[in-house]
UniProtKB/TrEMBL annotation, chain A:
InterPro entries: Peptide/Ni-bd, SBP_5, SBP_5_dom. PANTHER family: PERIPLASMIC BINDING COMPONENT OF ABC TRANSPORTER. Residues 1-26 form the signal peptide. Keywords: Signal. Pfam families: SBP_bac_5. This is ABC transporter substrate-binding protein. Residues 95-444 form the Solute-binding protein family domain. One of its GO terms (biological process) is peptide transport. Residues 329-348 are annotated as: Disordered. One of its GO terms (cellular component) is periplasmic space. GO terms for molecular function: peptide transmembrane transporter activity.
TrEMBL record, chain B:
SUPFAM superfamilies: MetI-like (SSF161098). The keyword Transmembrane helix applies. Belongs to the binding-protein-dependent transport system permease family. Its main location: membrane. GO terms for cellular component: plasma membrane. Gene3D superfamilies: MetI-like (1.10.3720.10). It is found in: Cell membrane. It is a multi-pass membrane protein. This is ABC transporter permease. GO terms for biological process: transmembrane transport. InterPro entries: BPD_transp_1_N (IPR045621), MetI-like (IPR000515), MetI-like_sf (IPR035906). Residues 103-313 form the ABC transmembrane type-1 domain.
Length: 526, 323
């Protein structure tokens, strides 16, 4: 999962959608709204018929078909069905075997031996083996390839293949996060015979579906891979149909042209009413945050940051900006390592304490923070910024809000040219992958994160060494505490995605990382 | 022969057109570079912050943005001259192919919209003009005002949502059908967008018609014709409307030109893969060559439509021919 912001353009069309919905709501019955609890929804457990063609409504074409460089939501999740990875994540985001059937870590943590699955083939019929793994991992590590996940392999020194079904990774230092990272489609296994140019038009993977056709700006169609190594999918085909306007996707769900769509704007999901559609809410790993740049101006002072931390009622931001659709969160959103949102200075808003912190701060004159906000990239950004501004005004801190078009926002963000940034960042199933690159002093996003400390460096290093689950949980709790006590950023809330499906479509399980991998267990009932 | 051309100003017009197109090319080139970010940040978003300098250099070479700006401009322009409009790395196909797919769709939508607009606008304008400041004039004007002031996106989303939710009618939820592949479905898919656009364009046509008809009605020849006993219907159509056609044709040509530029909002809502969406996607992704070439094609179409409108005057009005 990347940190790329999800694209939900809710342009002027939304106004029309709301107006139209008001008309329609009056006449329509309620949608069945699930509670997002997937624990009793086993993938593919329903009594489903093989066959059928599923149409998924998406707002945009994938912007690339090359998995190592895909960061766009639509591209990542479409390609996730076509390509295979060494490890995979199950519905609870726990690491499970993928193309590697088993793996073994040496005592010192520096040698990892993967045993590959037998009889796996690529879509073009060629067989998958250890030389493909070596080729893939080496190419990803090569800077020339410009693979977005190359840093996930930063601790890998050497990749060798002693035989056809064994791959050995030699690490410079232990890396307990490696196995979760390897499940990303950005680390997909490609055939050593393929070239980037070929794969740009004809993806060739080992996944449960094979790429069939693409009509640029209109659709991508996948077909079931009958030679898939696991349980073959039920659906004959899956078409990702581009319908650029979200309210038009809702219309297409209601008229039955489309049987599935994923929205992240609760306003749009609310309009998806009708007796034939189900809506499932799924809490997401991505988190809404006020990023602070602790290396600039008044924010270098811990007391100013703590004043901000104490001056904000997160539930109020959630309620006003996102209709209360979400949950207040601490730094880590990975299910197995989730931070306790109350373990922070001022779990409740405390304006008096905030003012005390500000009084103790060593700053001249009023605190004014240049705050960048991405306009239109996701629905709630500007509302969040306005609420934060109103709350901090009461403390005596001024947020100078700069709403920016997404390209301008990304430029400023990448250059760390801001005091504060209202952001929606992607989360990961594993906390080192999620924050190591931000908060270790040599992390590739540390400049943007604006904070590092020897304690954090030490904690992240320990986290990679630890193999025991409880020990790791304790270490990342400490990371979380350190981030909150130093008010490094102000973590706000996580939101939901809304998976709207036709009631005849069953066996699909939405995931917290947005993955559509359970299309392979989905099918039509009756 | 050359004399005739010079006399008619054809050479001059063509020269002007080429100059205009060059201006458009420079303008679009500069404006695109003024948009913050580049194709790399458009593709990777905030993830671009994690790129190492070597990775970034490799991507810049891949997208061809490692060249100096002047070099980029003239190599693109040179390619366009030879018919190579560039390559879209996003769609993995040539811009010429994409444009050849999209332009006929937009052209069809523009023609249908204009036909609907004329069918609504001209009768309505004549109706209003037939008795100015009467209730029927007010009604006609009200429809015109509605056409001007109801935003296309509101009308489009409302129509679509209500028809889909209440009647299950949503041809635009089907994959787009091209005119010659499946004319029936194509017409269904074009119906609502053409109606929405046509309604909007009908308003200026209605107003122009009303003004022009009122003006012609007060001319001497109309009084003469009436005095000679020409029946009212014949008078309206053969005498008045015929003479009011020049401003109507001007307005229609202008609107048609705009429609050829792509009706982005309506194309978005109804999932019409036309030229407007192509440009919008190109801008969102900072695909420079795609946007530059497509805008140039649109500008060319606009210039051609204006030339054709000029020619049309000669057909409509013998006085222009003589001049």
């Amino acid at each position: 999962m990347s940190d790329r912001l999800r694209r939900t353009r809710s342009g002027p069309a939304l106004v029309g959608a709301v107006a139209a919905a008001a008309l329609v709501l009056a006449a329509c019955s309620d949608a069945n709204t699930g509670d997002g609890d997937t624990s009793n929804t086993e993938p593919g457990s329903a009594d489903l018929q093989p066959g059928g063609d599923l149409v998924i409504g998406v707002t945009s074409d994938p912007d690339t078909l090359f998995p190592w460089r895909a960061t766009q939501f639509q591209a990542v999740h479409m390609l996730g069905n076509v390509y295979g990875t060494l490890t995979e994540l199950d519905q609870n985001l726990d690491v499970v075997p993928g193309l590697a059937e088993t793996w073994d870590v040496s005592e010192d943590g520096l040698t990892v031996t993967f045993t590959l699955r037998d009889g796996v083939t690529f879509a073009d019929g060629s067989s998958f083996g250890s030389e493909d793994v070596v080729h893939s991992l080496e190419s990803i590590r090569d800077e020339e390839t410009a693979a977005v996940a190359s840093s996930s392999l930063a601790r890998v020194d050497e990749v060798t293949a002693p035989d056809e079904s064994t791959v050995v990774l030699t690490l410079a230092s232990p890396d307990a996060g490696l196995f979760a990272n390897l499940a990303s489609v950005n680390l997909a296994m490609l055939s050593s015979d393929d070239t980037e140019d070929a794969l740009n038009t004809t993806p060739n993977g080992t996944g449960p579906f094979t790429f069939e056709t693409r009509v640029p700006n209109q659709s991508v169609t996948l077909a079931r891979n009958d030679a898939y190594w696991g349980e073959p999918a039920l659906l004959d085909t899956v078409e990702f149909r581009v319908i650029p306007d979200e309210s038009s996707i809702v219309s297409s769900l209601q008229s039955g042209n489309v049987q599935m769509a994923v929205f992240d704007d609760p306003l749009v999901a609310d309009t998806a009413t009708g007796s034939n559609v189900n809506v499932t809410e799924t809490p997401q790993l991505s988190y809404h945050v006020l990023q602070l740049n602790a290396r600039r101006g008044p924010l270098a002072d811990l007391n100013v940051r703590l004043a901000i931390q104490c001056g904000i009622d997160r539930q109020q931001v959630l309620d006003t900006a996102a209709l209360g659709e979400g949950e207040v969160t601490g730094p880590i959103t990975s299910p197995a390592y989730r931070s306790d949102p109350n373990a922070r200075p001022c779990p409740e808003r405390d304006v008096e304490r905030a003012k005390d912190y500000l009084a103790e701060a060593d700053v001249d004159g009023p605190v004014v923070l240049e705050t960048i906000v991405s306009q239109g990239e996701y629905a709630t950004s500007v509302n969040e910024a306005q609420n934060l501004k109103a709350q901090l005004d009461e403390v005596g801190i001024e947020l100078k809000i700069e709403p920016l078009e997404s390209g301008a926002y990304v430029d400023r963000w990448v250059a760390a040219d801001f005091d504060a940034a209202v952001a929606l960042n992607g989360g990961r199933p594993e906390p080192d992958g999620m924050y190591g690159r931000y908060f270790t002093s040599d992390g590739n996003l540390n400049e943007v994160a604006g904070y590092s400390s020897p304690e954090l460096d030490e904690l992240f290093a320990q986290g990679l060494l630890a193999t025991d689950d409880d020990e790791r949980k304790q270490i990342y709790d400490d990371v979380s505490r350190h981030l909150e006590d130093n008010a490094v950023w102000v973590w706000l809330f996580t939101s939901y995605t809304y998976t709207v499906t036709d009631s005849s479509l069953q066996g699909f399980v939405p995931m917290a990382n947005g993955s559509l991998q359970y299309l392979r267990t989905a099918g039509f009932a009756g | 022969m050359l004399d005739t051309f010079l006399h008619n100003g054809v050479v001059q017009r063509v020269g002007q057109a080429v100059f205009t197109l060059f201006g458009v090319a420079v303008f679009v080139f500069v404006m695109l570079r003024a948009i913050p970010g580049d194709q790399i940040t458009a593709n990777l978003g905030t993830e671009a912050a994690a790129l190492t300098p070597d990775q970034r250099a490799s991507l810049e070479a891949y997208y061809g943005i490692d060249q100096p700006l002047i070099g980029q401009f003239f190599s693109w322009l040179g390619n366009v001259m030879t018919g190579n409009l560039g390559f879209s790395s996003r769609a993995q196909t040539s811009v010429a192919d994409l444009t050849l797919q999209a332009l006929p769709i937009t052209f069809e939508l523009a023609v249908l919209s204009i036909v609907l607009a004329l069918a609504i606008g001209i009768p309505l304008g004549m109706l209003s003009a037939s008795r100015p400041n009467s209730p029927r004039d007010a009604a006609g004007q009200a429809v015109g005002l509605a056409g001007l002031s109801i935003p296309a996106f509101l009308l489009a989303t409302t129509l679509m949502s209500v028809l889909a939710a209440q009647f299950g009618f949503n041809p635009n939820g089907e994959p787009f059908a091209r005119l010659f592949d499946d004319p029936l479905l194509n017409m269904q898919q074009m119906l609502l967008p053409a109606l929405v656009l046509g309604f909007g364009v009908a308003a200026p046509i209605m107003r122009t018609t009303r003004t022009a008809v009122l003006e012609v009605t007060s001319d001497d020849f109309v009084r003469t014709a009436r005095a000679k006993g020409v029946p009212p219907r014949r008078l309206q159509i053969r005498h008045i409307l015929r003479n009011a056609l020049v401003p109507i044709a001007t307005m229609t040509g202008l609107q048609f030109g705009y429609l050829l530029g792509g009706a982005v909002v309506v194309e978005q809502i109804f999932s019409i893969p036309g030229i407007g969406r192509q440009v919008l996607l190109g801008i969102q992704q900072n695909e420079y060559a795609l946007v530059q070439s497509t805008v140039l094609v649109i500008a060319l179409a606009f210039v051609l439509v204006n030339l054709l409108t000029d020619l049309l005057y000669r057909l409509i009005d013998p006085r222009v021919r003589a001049a």
